[in-house]
Design brief:
Blueprint lengths: L19 H13 L2 H4 L4 H18 L4 E4 L2 E4 L1 H24 L5 E6 L1 H12 L2 H5 L3 E6 L2 H10 L4 E4 L9 E8 L1 E6 L6 H9 L5 E4 L18 E3 L2 H8 L5 E5 L11 E4 L2 H4 L3 E7 L1 H6 L2 H18 L1
Parallel strand pairs: 3-4, 3-5, 8-9, 8-10
Antiparallel strand pairs: 1-2, 5-12, 6-12, 7-10, 7-11
Helix pairs in contact: 1-3, 1-4, 5-12
Amino acid sequence: MRHYYPIMFTKLFAESGLSLDRLRSLLEVGASGSIVKAADGDPVRQSQYSRQIKELEDFFRIKLIERQGKGTRLTQSGKELARISRFFMLGLSNFQRGCLAEAQAFSVGGSATFIRQFLLPVVSDSAVLRRGTRYLVETANDDEIERRLHDLTLDFGVTARAAISRPLQLTALGRWRLKLWVPHALHRDEKTARVAFKERRLPLILARREFDPSGLEFLGGYEPSLTCDNFLEARAAMEQNAVAAILPDFLMPGGSARGYFPVRIPPLESRVFQFRLAWNPRLLRLNPHAIRHRDFLGTMLSKQMAE
């Protein structure tokens, strides 16, 4: 008796309209948010994208994109097809690199502060560079990291979240706390600075994208003088000596630290934060080499945070 495993796919290839090129078009339009952006304004490419996605819709007999304002977005079916396509193409890409003996490349996302303080010293080490693996470092917030890990458009991410949606997985890297730093140019001593802080008179800068003050009662009603994206920017602004800043304990003021002093705020310093390395286990099944790099990043980043 003869068995033909490919018979499972007979219906899938019974008619035209499905191809890698068409699936790539769907991925590019979904990532760009519109056909115009994906085509970079080229009318010929716009027509090609529209035609290829329409052919996919005809093949699957379902709507894959829909209008959203001036752009387009993937429907739920479009997102699912994009996820399946990305998974499939990532596997093919890894297979091709292996056949060509090309160096592995892994993308890692994290906050600007974590990247500058911990990630770059690890991946830019000369011994790491000699191994030939390429790391693509990208600034991303926790929401973006979680979404892109699911989409397999990011290999690894570093998040401050204690939990993450399945099937994503986490491993702890290190803990940190927050401190309030005040320039001597604003106040001469900790006592007067603490009183000014309690009375909401202390000029303050907050890094909104890396520190969410909501839920912290001691900051309730505090209107910061400045807001910025990350702790690195907050420190740079504080070093102009006109504002105080809430910074992680691993991020000391630059230059002469004698120009600044920490103010003890127990409710602030009692909060413990933790960085965690996150990944999608599907990546490890697609690319077994990723296991070694996950373990390397976890070990080296933990050591870097402990120093």
